[in-house]
Sequence to fold (298 residues):
Amino acid sequence: MGYRRRKGVWRHPSRLAVFVGDLIDRGPEIEAVLETVAAMVEAGSAECILGNHERDLIYFHTLNASGKPMRERSEGRIEQLKATHEQLGMRSRKLKRWVRWMRALPIVFERPGLRVVHGAWHEPSVKVWRGKSLASRGVMRKLENRESPEAGSLATLLFGPVIMFKMRDSKGRKRLYNMRARWFRRPEELSAPTLWHAAFHRRKRWPRSTLTDDDRKSLWGYPKSEPPLVTGHQSLGLKASIRPLLPNLACVDYSAVYGGRLCAYRWSGEERLKRGNFVAVTARRPPRKPRVRKEKRA
Fold:
């Protein structure tokens, strides 16, 4: 992409790199990734916005007014952050320093003619967070309340909408499922108004049931008149075609962590995003750790 390392920092003679977040929790060199991005940001050759994985690490290591973690330290959250804690240290000064750095990351990136957000662009939520970060005064106290406008809008921007529905699993048990929704398409823009058509990842067994009124609210759309937008988060399929999702919307998360492709979009001021402006390299999955069998107790 034309970047060269000078004085320990990757730089481009005329371009600015914008990282879409989720720098942690995956891969064998998390600290090297953080150091690379932080050095570029400090040198002015890059910007980086907050991802949901950074948010979760911040929540994990921030105490509320009662002296308890901001969010429950569930088994799932502990497992998600396992690689980060193993590589940076669970209670190390190093980890605390990176948490402080992450808190200062902006939630959205905006320049004339271009927008970048981690999960989904939702204008009412953007208004809550424009010009702010988790380091802004009083923000963390507001985020303690899951029902606060700050917490809800942050989740919307980092995750995008999730539609919940019940369906029987392979064993015939009825379970509650979470489905990432194509927020950028309004219901009338779908080829059919069903859960399957609204899904980001259209699995064969997702139901074709009609969207409810609440489901429809998750599809607020991204009009063609809006500036070009680049997002991450969605972990598009390993075999997904690398191309714009809309003429003014591109996602650059093509599941590198699962052996997919590490992807970027090179924007040069165009109003309609171009397929040829994507740059991608095939990623290698980290080797799986061998399972350790536990001895059965008598």
In short: Residues 292-298 have pLDDT under 50 and may be disordered. The radius of gyration is 20 Å. Residues 71 and 252 are 29 Å apart (CA to CA).
